[in-house]
Amino acid sequence: CAPQLLLLDEPVAGVDAAATRVIYSVLHGLAQSGCAVVLVTHNPGALAPYTRRTIEVAEGAMMEVAVQEA
């Protein structure tokens, strides 16, 4: 059984581009199977193909919420 929730802080820090795509693809698959994935990154653009909802936070305040159509 997959986990119900994953909390990740910079899971691809120091990882090359090919491995980053693999990691994000696996996380996307987990999310598609019902796992909630909460991920912190300093490079949100790289996540765009894999996310449904993005929340940007700056200086402790929510700045922007983006929801992609399914």
Quick gist of this model?
With 70 residues, the protein is of the alpha+beta class. The protein has 1 helix and 4 strands, in the order E-H-E-E-E.
Could you list some keywords that capture this structure?
alpha+beta, 4 strands, two-stranded parallel sheet, 70 residues, two-stranded antiparallel ribbon, 1 helix
Structure, described:
The protein is of the alpha+beta class. 23% of the residues lie in helices and 33% in strands. It contains 1 helix and 4 strands. The chain has one helix at residues 17-32; strands spanning 5-9, 36-40, 53-58, 61-67. The protein has a two-stranded parallel sheet. Strands 3-4 form a two-stranded antiparallel ribbon. Strand 3 (53-58) and strand 4 form a beta hairpin. The radius of gyration is 12 Å and the shape is globular. The mean pLDDT is 89.
List the helices and strands and how they pair.
Elements: E1 5-9, H1 17-32, E2 36-40, E3 53-58, E4 61-67
Parallel strand pairs: 1-2
Antiparallel strand pairs: 3-4
